[in-house]
């Protein structure tokens, strides 16, 4: 009975974080909740007895993607634009 309750709690937390990520107007908050979603998803994979997928979800889903999204939000908040070459205008990547 306790396992069912924990699974139900995990599913509720996953749905709540997914909805909070999609409905958030603040980009930073959305990324932080997305990282929390990735960590909860890793716990769900552990509950499904798939530790290899849980490790991949933690490393890629919550870790790497979260860091890249946080970096993108910081660039967006500073107002830097990205040129076609992939470098920001503020860094001297203006096209000629």
Automatic annotation (TrEMBL):
* Region forming the signal peptide: none
**InterPro entries from the entry?**
MrpA_C/MbhD, Nuo/plastoQ_OxRdtase_6_NuoJ
One GO cellular-component annotation of the UniProt record comes to:
plasma membrane
Pfam families according to UniProt: MbhD
Q: Where in the cell is it found?
A: Cell membrane
Its main subcellular localisation, reduced to a broad class, is membrane
Q: What is this protein called?
A: Putative MnhB-related membrane protein
**Organism listed in the record:** Halospina denitrificans
